[in-house]
Amino acid sequence: MTTKELSRYLRLHQITISKYAAAGVIPAIRIGRAWRFDKDVIDDWMSTGVNAVATNRRPMKKDIKGQSGKKEARK
Asked: Which of 17, 18, 28, 67 has its CA 20 to 30 A from that of 52?
């Protein structure tokens, strides 16, 4: 499914779908600049109530052990 098709299916805005896909909240595959969604996977995701898919989520700087996203003070 495309972002547009999924937005109709879930009754959410296309931008919300894209943001959720980028954040790893909703299971998705990125092909070039476009997100693609498998209807069966989406249905399973909704029925299980899982909030995030670990394989789709990119780590943020603050998620990396020992880094808080802030510059460390030099001694």
From this structure: 67
In tens, the pLDDT along 11-66 reads 999 999 999 999 999 999 999 999 999 999 999 999 987 665 444 555 545 544 55
DSSP state of 48: H
Query: Nearest Cα to 35, choosing from 43, 44, 24, 45?
Result: 24
Residue ranges making up the domain that contains 44: 3-57
Tell whether 67 is covered by a domain.
Answer: no
Q: Please, are residues 8 and 24 in contact by the beta-carbon 8 Å criterion?
A: no
- CA angle 5–10–6, rounded 5-degree value: 20
